[in-house]
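Data card: per-record layout.
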Amino acid sequence: AVLSLLALTLLLCAQMSFHYSVALPPLRQRLQLAATLVGLAVPLCLCAFVLFPRISGPLWSLPGDAHAGKTGLSSAMAPGGISDLA
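The structure for this 86-residue chain is written out next.
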């Protein structure tokens, strides 16, 4: 987790370096600002992790009858299987 936060801070510092066009502040000042932003974001992330519920399945999960409209016949047939396609 510490290495991830360090990498995030360095990437944020690099992104801020691209943002400045005329007067580029010193590296120390950019790193300090990036560390401040990451430090402000960590408590918000922890609150969101603790307070909001986790979804049991992936967001891209399909409803139960999502594969009902497949074309062709399967290897296992049940009575009324063909009428379910309609």
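Known properties of this structure: Residues 71 and 85 are 9 Å apart (CA to CA). DSSP finds three helices and no strands in the chain.

See the next section for split statistics.
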